[in-house]
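Quick one, tokens below:
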């Protein structure tokens, strides 16, 4: 969901009608809950950023395993150790086919399908629980001039 930055700020419109000794003022404040929606939008984007980073990490791991990267290399070891933390729930779901040093880690591919679904569900849950529909608030008053 995108939020138009121009609509985020509260817009205040004051209409004044004066006829003789009578003044009619109307104050309109539009989209009272847009500031709340921007917070939800930013939280959603942060969640997608985290899950996108996780996807990239697992994708790099899959690539390194497929090309038979040296596990003794510091970068390769770092990627393997960091991604292991997120892949343990998927261990031993299926066998990972291997040929010499080349491994196709199917469990990582499964994780790359599951984690975006978890991210999507989390973002949707946040929007369902905390979303407030945009509203308009109107204040009107009349006064007599003496």
């Amino acid at each position: 969901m995108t939020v138009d930055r121009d609509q985020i700020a509260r817009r205040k419109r004051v209409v004044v009608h004066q006829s003789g000794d009578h003044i009619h003022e109307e104050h309109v404040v539009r989209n009272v809950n847009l500031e709340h929606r921007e917070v939800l939008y930013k939280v959603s984007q942060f969640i997608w950023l985290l899950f996108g980073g996780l996807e990239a990490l697992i994708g790099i791991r899959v690539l390194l395993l497929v090309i038979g990267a040296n596990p003794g290399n510091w970068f390769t070891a770092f990627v393997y150790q960091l991604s292991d933390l997120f892949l343990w729930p998927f261990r031993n779901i299926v066998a990972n086919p291997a040929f010499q040093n080349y491994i196709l880690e199917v469990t990582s591919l499964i994780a790359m399908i599951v984690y975006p679904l978890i991210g999507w569900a989390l973002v949707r849950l946040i929007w369902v629980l905390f979303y407030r529909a945009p509203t308009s608030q109107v204040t009107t008053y009349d006064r007599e001039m003496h």
